Amino acid sequence: VYEGEPILAVFHSTSAGETETAGNIWNYDLPYLESTDSIGDTYAPNYENTTEISCGDIIAKIKNLYPDFQADEAGLFDSIKINERSEAGYITDMTVGNMNFTGKQIREALGLRSANFTVENKGASIAFTTKGFGHGAGMSQYGANAMSRQGFTGEEIVEFYFPGTHVDGYR
Question: The pTM is what?
Answer without folding.
Answer: 0.91
